[in-house]
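Students often ask why we bother encoding 3D structure as a string. The short answer is that it lets us treat folding as translation between two languages. Here is a chain of 448 residues written in the first language.
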Amino acid sequence: MSEHLRTAARRIFADTLQQIDVVAAVRRRILLDGTHVRLADAMIGRHEVDRVLLIAMGKAAVPMYQAAAGALHGLELSGIVVAPAQTLPTALPGAQLLRGDHPLPTQSSLQAGNAILRVLAGVTPRTVVVFLVSGGASAMVERPLTPAISLDDLRAFSQALVGSGLGITAMNTLRKHLSAVKGGRLAVAARAAALQCTLLISDVPLASPDAIGSGPSLPDSATVANCRALLQPVNAPTLPVSVLQWLQSPLLPKTPKPNHPAFSRARWEVVLSSEHLVEAARSAAQACGFYTAVDNSCDEWEYRAAARHLLDHAHMIGRREQLSTCLISVGEVGVSLSGMPGEGGRNQQFALWCAQALAATGRSATVLSAGTDGVDGNSTAAGAVCDETTVPRTAAAGYKPTESLLHFNTSPLLHAIGDALHTGPTGNNLRDLRLVLVEPQSSRLRYQ
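And here it is in the second language, the structure alphabet:
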């Protein structure tokens, strides 16, 4: 039964990824006819436009640019694409291609930030600017607001955020207040444009579109007070002095708000989100014969609390319905790092902890946890598929799950026993997807 459910979990994940069509989502929101250009809910006459500037950044930057450039064929186009090196083609018509590094900023990130600001400086009242933003852009495009913050300081700050256990919205609130390219500041740089339109692929909670890629072209909902209140969970004493001095300075500038003139001719829309991910996963699971349920209530919970909740919920549904069940959960879980973490990510940490809980209680379930971008933390895996056989198989391979979890070094273990899930970069970046598959004859024990 375990092999059957592991195969089903992998198939559901693969089919879900196939259903999430970035190109189609972008093309639906751009229309060019003989007289007008329509971008989301905005329209402008073709005779008013000399040039369209496309700025694509993030893990889905390449297909987003390709979709937009195809839909606007016939206009004068130019652009910049900042994307992971593994997804960059050798060329894209009209585009300057720049490598985007993740999860920590690099010199390439600074080069991308400078390149985008330079091209936006040439925007005129006859230019339309289209920002195409997806998750990962926060690390891939950067420029500090003050030269006092070095690249090494930026990297140390980003590393502290990644290991803080903070949710993505909170992390990006802090990033925005350091950056000349985040928190709406690219919209300000493009304020001379006839029209700005931002199309977004969301890897954040639905209520926080300005957190996607740290909201480079959207008005910012976060305040300086919000920013400072978040410093304590990040363990402020370990942060670079330059970062602390900047964030605590009485002269720390506010990010642009909705009443800023730059947004008077700006529009934005999320074209793919966690809602699309849920529906794609539900369709894929039902096609495999599973009764489906959705539970996103544990989004941004601590990973062990989320694991207990989802395992108990899935078994409860299986007993109630007496059907093979797939519980679907979309979002992220928090993992607070300590010491020198090894190779892994939050999805592999979650899946292996679930396997250990199953082994301790004698219950059966198959758990898949993976990133839709194809990358989990600092590993090459997207995540993992674990079940009640995982822990016994680790012993045979010479690994100890407890030690792997303690040292956040789950990837070598999961790879060795074949439970790691590898897709390679997908060219997409919605939220993480978790699946819990159970058969109806499950135990009534609870997880401790």
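Translate back mentally: Residues 443-448 have pLDDT under 50 and may be disordered. Keep this in mind for the problem set.
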